[in-house]
């Protein structure tokens, strides 16, 4: 019994030694071969996580800004927004610098002739006022060419669809610019819209500056009728809206004069 037990134990020890000698090189081989492959893989995963995490945070902040309620006119937040819009207008828009250098253009604020008492009763200077609406309107008048270039900021409160300015809001702004050109032509310094046609060519996005290029048709216009056209363009010069308008001086309706300017 002792003889067979020793043989059995000797055989088990040899089998164990052989098993350990067989598996050890394999483990070392797997570990040394796996390290070069797993390290770049984890590096790529960390990089991708950082990139997509940053994009996710940025997209979340953008979405928060878009769905948040715009500040009410007259609040501190609204005043700060207006100041920033004015700052960008003064130093950030090349077309403004170009127009200011051109002596043929005279820069004016809109509604200069209207008192603070009357402004709240007007659509564009009342309900549509503030950074959420028409955050800024500046007029550059060229008397030689009978042309107006207006720079406007269209806020998020003018949207008809998320990020898109409502077509009716655009029509209102266009109508006023066409009317400014026509009224400047009329000796009576007053007039009303008789016809307005618009063609929407490209989307107009909120929270952006746009220019309105409005020109009087001097050949067709008279002292009581004025024809004008307007183009709405983004800051890259892309045509977004085309419009034409006919304005008349009423014969039986007495209207106040708009004023020397706008």
TrEMBL record:
Top-rank taxon: Eukaryota
A Pfam family that the UniProt record links to this protein: 4HBT
SUPFAM superfamilies: Thioesterase/thiol ester dehydrase-isomerase (SSF54637)
Domain Thioesterase, residue spans: 164-239
Coiled-coil ranges per UniProt: none
InterPro entries: HotDog_dom_sf, PTE-AB_protein, Thioestr_dom
Record protein name field: Thioesterase domain-containing protein
Species name: Penicillium cf. viridicatum
